[in-house]
Each structure stands twice: as C-alpha cells, then as structure tokens.
Amino acid sequence: MNLLPWTIYLSFIGASLAWLAGRRWSAPARWLALLTALGNLGIIGWAALDFSPAAETQTLVDLPWVSFASYHLAADGISMTLVLLTGIAALAGILFSWNITHRTGDFFALFLALIGGVYGVFLSADAFLLFVFYEIAIVPKYFLVAVWGSTNREYGAMKLVLYSFAGSALVMAGLLWAGAAGISFDMNFFAAQTRILSQVQQTGMFALIFTGFAVLAGMVPFHTWAPTGHVAAPTGASMLLAGVVMKLGAYGCLRLALPAFPLGLDFFQPLIAALGIAGILYAGLVALVQTDFKFVIGYSSVSHMGFVLLGLAVATPRALAGAVLQMFSHGIVAGLLFAVVGRMVYERTHTRDLHQLHRLPLFRMLPFAAVVFSLAGIASMGMPGFSGFPAEFSILIGTWQHNALWAVLAAIGIPVAAAYTLRVVHLAFFGKIAAEEISSADHPPLPPTTWPERLGAVLLLAVSITVGIHPGLLLDWIVPALQSPLMQIVSNGAAQ
Amino acid sequence: MNAYYSELFSFHLPEVILTGGALLVLAADLLLGKFSSEPVRRALAALLGMLAMGFAAEALSPYLRGDTSALGQLCLLGLSGLTLLLIAGTSRLRHPAEHVALTLFATVGFSLMVTANNLLLVFLAFELSSITLYILAGFDKSSPASAEAALKYFLYGSVAAAFLLFGFSLLYGLTGEIELAELGAKLSVLPASPLLVIAWIMILAGFGYKAAAAPFHLWAPDAYQGAPAPSAALIAAGSKLAGMLLLVRLFAEIGFSPLGPALQTALALLIAASLLLGNVAALVQSNFRRLLAYSAIGHAGIVLLMIGIAPADPQMAFGDVLYYLLTYGLASVGAFGVAAVLEANDARGQKLSDFAGLWQRSPFLTICLLVFILSLAGVPPLAGFFAKFNAFYDVLGSLDSAALTSSPFFWLVLLAIAMSAVALYYYLQVLKQAFIAPAEETRPLRIALPATTALLFAAAGIVLLGIFPEHFLRLLF
C-alpha cells in the first residue's frame, strides 16, 4: 500500500530514462516505457491486494511542504479504482504506440510524464498538490499531439492545451478565493470547513472549481476541445486523453468541488444535470452524422462523460458509485475504440473517412480489428456483460430515484449510442466489395495486426468483460469510500 | 582612516570587494592584455570577476541569518554571476574586461539599492546601476541596434530618474528628512496632502520604468532586442530584482498603511495596464527577445501587485518579491543565454524561427529552454508556478476576507490569472519552434563550458526552487 506513491516517482524516472535512451536508440526507450508501465501496474496490483476498503482515506505520505499545503498523498476506493484504470490504460497505450519510430524517446518520455501527473492527481489528498499534478499533466499533452499527431495537429494541440489551461485558471482562482476565505487545502478538513463559508462564497467557489475541472471532463459547452484534440492526437495519446485525462476533470469535480462546497452543488444541481443530459444527447446525435471515423469516437466520449456529470450532479451514493464506475469503464472502452480506429485501421488504410472505408471490406482484411471493434462497440452501447452496463445502469437508477424526468431524458442516450455505434460498425467494417476482389491491385492486402496490438486489445477487452460480469470487484472499493464523512456531506446536501 | 570609516568599510565589504574586483579586472587586462589573444583576455576577465563575486558572497555570509536584505544581495550576486558566465561563454564583443568591470559596477549599484537607508543614497545607487546599464546596453559598438537600445534606454531612464528625484525632493520638502526611518516616522503623523500623493506617483513612475511596467515600458522591447545578450539578461534579471526590492523597502519604511486611495488607484492602473498590454502584445511578436520584453511587462504587473501589500506586511512582500523575481531572473538569464548560444553559433538567434529544430541540434539546450519558458509561463513543478501562486495567495490573504470583492486587488488577481492562461499561448509559440519545427540548419550547436555552466545552474535553480520553495522562503523568516 505504501508503495503506491512510487507509481508517480517511477513514471517520472521512467520518463527521464526513456528520454536518455531515446537519444540514441528507439527500442530500449520503448522497452523502458513498457517496463515502467508494468512496474506501475505491479505496484498497483500489490497495493490492491493489500487494500482494505474503508470509509477513511488511507494516508500514504504526509510531509510538510509549503506554508499553505502539505505533500499529502492518500488513497481510498475511488482513487484506487482510477489509479488502476491509469495503470491499465498506460500499459495499453504503450502497446498501441509500439510502432512509434519518430523521436521514440521523446514520445515515451512525455507519455510517462503525463501518466506521472495523472497518478499524482488521483493520489493527492491536498487540493493544492492535486492542482500541481493536474497542471503537470497539461503540457505533455501539447507536445504529444503537436509532434506525433495527424489531422490538424497543431490546431488540435493548441486548442486542447488552451482549454485545459483556461480551465485550470478557473480552478486556481477558486482555490485562491477559498484560501483567502480561510479554507485549508487539506481535503480531510473540508468537512469541518464548509460551515464557515456563506452561501454566496460556496456558490462562487463551487462555480469556479467545478467549471474549471468540468472543461477537462468534456462538459457541454466546453467540450469542443475533446473531438478535435482526440482526432489530432496519435493513438496512444488519444487513448490517454479519452481514457484518463477526461477523468482527471471529473475526479477534480468529485473530490474538490462537491465535498468542499455542498451548498454550491445544491444551487447548480439542475444546471449541471441539464448540461450532462445535453452532453449525452447532443454529442450522441452529432456522433451519428460524422463522416470521420475518429470524430464519431470523439463525440461518443463526450456523450459518455455526460453520464458521469449527471451522476455527479445527482450525487446520491448510488449515482456517484455509478459515475466512478463509468469513469473506469469509459476509460477502458474508449481507449479500445481509439486504439482500433487510430492504430489498427487508420495507420493501415491511411483514411478515416467512413465512406471510403465502406468501399473496403475491412471485415475480411482486418478480421481481428473488426471483431475487437464490434465487441468494444457493444460495450460502449452499455450492453450487459460489459463494464458500461452496471455503470450507466446505476447512474440511471440513482437519477430516477432523484428525478424521474432526468433519468428518462438521459436514457434516450442509450438508443442513440446504439445507433451511432451500429452505424459506424456497419460503415467501417462491413464494406460493399465482395471477398474475391480483395486481392486485386486496387486493394492490396493490409499488413496484419501485430502482437502488441493484439495483446493490448485483449487486455482492455478482458478488463471490460471482467468488470461487466462482476462489477462488485470495483464497487466493493467504491461504495465504502462514498460512506466517508466527506461524501456524506455531498449526498446529504444534495438530497435537501 | 578613522574608526568610523573603517566600520563603514566593513559594512560595505561586499561592495568594496566588487569595486576592487572591477578595478583589478581592468588593471589585469591593461597589463596582460597586450600579450594575449581575445579569448584568453575574456576568460581572464570573467574569472577575476567571478572571483570577486565569490569573495563578496563570502563577505555577506555572516549576515545571512535574520537579515533579509543580505539574502537579496546574495541573489543579486548570483544573477550577475550568471551573466558574467554568459559573457565568458557566448560574447564575441571586443573589450571583454570593460564588459566584465561594468557588470561588476552595476552589481555594486544593485547591492546598494537593496541596502540603502537614505533617500540620497537610494537615488545614487539607482543612478549608478542605471548608468552602467546604459553603457552595457550599447556595448556592441558594431551594431546600430545596440546603439539604439542604449539611446532609448538612456532617454527614458533619465526622464524616469528626474521623476524619481522630483518625488524624493517633495518628500524631503514635506518632512526635512532623508533618513528613511525618520522620514517614515514624520510622514506617519503628517495629514494627508495632495503633495504627498504627487510625490508617491512620481516615485512610482520612476520605479515603473525600472520594472518596465506599462505605461513606462516603451524602452523595454528595443532594449531587450538590441542590447548584447548578457547585458539584456542583466537588465531583465538583476536590475529588476534590485529595483523592486528597493521599492518594497520604500513602501515598507515610508509608505503609509493602508495605502491612500489615490495611490492605490494609481498602482492598480499600472498593474492592470501592464498585465493587459504585456500579455496581449506578446501574442503577436515574432522576435524572441521582444516577446521576452512584453512578457516581462506582464510579469511586472504581478510584481507590483505584490508590492501593493508591502504596507500591510513588508516582510511577506519582501519575501514574495524576492522569490518571484529570483525565479523570474533565473529564467530570463537562461532564456537570453539560450538565445546567446544560438547567436554565437549561427550569428542569428533573434527571430522565433531561428529556434526551429533546436531539439535536433542540441537536446541539452532544448531541455533548458523548456525549463525556462515553462517557468515563465508558470507551469509546475517549476519555480515560476509557485512564485505566482504564492504571490496571489498572499495578496488575497492580506485583503479583508469579508469585503474581498470590493478591493481592486481582488479583481487584479483574477485578471492576472486570466492573463496567465493567455500567456501560455505565446510561450508555447517559442517551444513549438524549439521542440516541434524541423531544423533548417542541422549543424550541432557548440556550447562553451561557461555557458553550459550558467544554463545548468539556472535550470537546476528553477527546478529546485520550484520543488522545495519553502526551504528558500524559510531563510527569510
């Protein structure tokens, strides 16, 4: 358990080593990155065995740091879930980036630095520390997208990073205001502090901090960075963006905004729920008409994150548990979808235009990709047996208990998701050309899928199915964490 | 020499050592210069200059505990030392001994600025540093741009000095005192008078010039662009740190608490203008040094924000300004150092596009530039982030938390935060060239050992100050 902070340090050490090794050779940089990711996953696995779910967060490190904040790392079931997600997503991201040959060392160094920041956010128990790690994770994204990306990469990268930075400026303003009002940044004290703040203060601070983080969680109308950023990013980076980085935003909302300012949540609850539902429906409908394969997945990410926001807004224990589970599930499934689109299809066919892809019988040319994508699509639709089902289901149940209309509106998102997923599966993989024409000169056979791709895909699918069949694995971690005094404030406050 | 003078001598030992060192540098060059080549002369001058800095720092060490101004002097010595290394490592100008000696004289001026307790001495120190900096800005006699930089810097500077002197003379006229402590005591019992406000606004104008705060910033882009890189680094780093520490002390010793509303308004206008103009104008720059100049104007806004809290809590304001401008200075010296290395190799390093493909030519330089620029942008874990957050935290903390929104400083902090998001755009333009753009010129860069040392020190300083800020700030309290 106490080794958990080493996920942060190991990531940064791995980043430096990969950079150094990459100056001369690319293979060692790749292997170093893989070893780092495996090492992190090992640490997480070890910690998970050791982890006994409880209401209290378990402090890992607590050192004096600066006058207003301490270097306080801690974990509870929610952090454990998301740390595990990060470990898996990082490993899969590295496997799907195995073919990076341009500036390999730099790529993996930035990749691991981003991961290190993400681990830091999920393990921080101090609002200032969390913010520091959150900002550390911003800059590597820019370079990952701008150097190794594809369509419109410099635009996508700049948009992504400016949105993130603008969001973090809002968070910074909120934190500073809270600090000036006498709030200590240690999250364990939030419960005691909410009393000293007036309604106006709570509402204002909540608005700043929640909005700032929600930018990164893809909340409508601040979501527009997500599709362009995801599309421009190289496969590994878009897996991280959708899989982990959007979770940073949702996690920030859940950990800082909700418990510290419950009156703010009361005030904004209908608005956030409305924006969440708007995200689910609007992004889903937009995904339905895209012609770029990757944009479909990009918008579907926004749509799925809408469920998370809805869960956060409702803030009953069941809805929150569903939201955390949805973060995990979407991280795995969206990563897989981006991997298939970006790595398996685009890098072989060099097109993401659905109508062009439709002229190719990809089902026969890339059977592995077709099967994986279909399964991932089913998972993304929220079908039972995959991780998305228990997550979206408990969000909807939790919402229903709170406000039936919201639940009905959000539930419309599920057939919409089915529609755009089936459309894209059909267009992309089940093309028009008969099997015998494949090997003609117009359609030379595509290179077969490689072992890192297969390994990564199997890993992600296995995780999604395991959690889908036995969601208790994670819920046993998440639910006790929601019983903590901090989270009790959230659900009590919002129930009024 | 009587007892009084010998005491004075020991109090001023660091300045005496620096002055002696400067004379020694000149003498050594005069005697030995004839027999040696230009690089040897440059190395010798820089070495003697560094030794003088080292001895001066040694002379300061007994006072470091409990004396905040000694720490300020030490930081100034460090920043000047880094510029000396840049002279040794990147400069190709003639008369290296004069270059080094002038840098030492400027450092004497900085050091006196931080410690002066008397209006007359304040003004003399201010002028000593300014005049040496004018010469340093125009030190490249082969370049018209350098002459232009010096002329603009001089014209604005001399007008600013006149404002400052006028302000001081009004203070003297009102109280009949020039000792800061007694002046402060008399001012505190003086009824509010418009003359006092005028005096302070004059003083603010003088210091606004030193800090390159809008609307007194017009010299900055040209001076940054035209001056030789080590001189520009000194203007950006040391001069600004010394000037602002002096202003904090003036506010603390003779300022009145709370600030009069008129003065507060004037300061708030300076801050808002600097934040807006600096950050917005930097967005469209294609010249690296002009970009740094406009970013400096934006940073000046934040520094003045911290100075606004000096009357309430001088100790905290001193610490925050020192930390902020030390980290800012390290990043500026470093950024000018990177540009200077490029100029030494390619004879160009002014335009942003001259940085294209730096990652192919020198990974070391790219990483250093990354550290400097991201620290200026305020990205953690680099020191620039903590400096900024700490500044905002302390400014807001010093306000009355019940009536937070009625204070202009609250809104200025929000403006500064918003502007820091804008600023990231232009800082990333630099990094985009250095880290992403392909190289036109793929020759590897040669970096002389002193320049490597300076860049390494600056980068390491920024990282360490950023990760362990408290270890530095604790030295002050």
Q: Quick recap of the structure?
A:
The complex is a heterodimer of chains A (496) and B (477). Chain A has 496 residues and is mainly alpha-helical. Chain A has helices at residues 6-22, 27-50, 77-96, 104-123, 127-136, 138-148, 153-180, 190-193, 199-216, 225-232, 235-260, 262-288, 293-314, 317-349, 354-358, 362-365, 367-381, 388-402, 404-429, 451-469, 472-482, 485-495, and strands at 58-66, 69-75.
Q: What's the count of strands of chain A? A: 2
> If interface size is counted as residues with C-beta under 8 Å from the partner's C-beta, which chains form the largest one?
A-B, 35 and 33 residues
- Unreliable stretches of chain A (pLDDT < 50, length at least 5) are none
Rounded Rg of chain B: 21 Å
Order of helices and strands of chain A: HHEEHHHHHHHHHHHHHHHHHHHH
What is the CA-CA span between the terminal residues of chain B?
Answer: 37 Å
List the domain count of chain B as a whole number: 1
User: Rg of chain A, please?
Assistant: 21 Å
Helix content of chain B: over 70%
Low-confidence stretches of chain B: none
Oligomer: heterodimer
Content-based structural category of chain B = mainly alpha
How many E strands of chain B? 0
Global outline of chain A: globular
What's the helix count of chain B?
A: 20
Give, in order, the helices and strands of chain B.
HHHHHHHHHHHHHHHHHHHH
Mean pLDDT of chain B: 90
Q: How many alpha or pi helices of chain A?
A: 22
Strand content of chain A: under 5%
Description:
The complex is a heterodimer of chains A (496) and B (477). Chain A has 496 residues and is mainly α. Chain A has one domain (5-495). Helix content of chain A is 75%, strand content 3%. In chain A, strands 1-2 form a two-stranded antiparallel ribbon. In chain A, a hairpin with a 2-residue loop joins strand 1 and strand 2. The mean pLDDT of chain A is 90. The model of chain B has no long low-confidence stretch (mean pLDDT 90). Chain B has one domain. Classes of the chains: A mainly alpha (496), B mainly alpha (477). Chain A binds chain B through residues 23, 64-68, 103, 106, 128, 132-133, 135-136, 138-139, 142-143, 146-147, 154, 158, 161-162, 165-166, 168-169, 172-173, 176-177, 179-182, and chain B through 359, 363, 374, 379-381, 385-386, 389-390, 392-393, 396-397, 399, 401, 404, 413-414, 417-418, 420-421, 424-425, 428, 431-432, 435-436, 469-470, 473.
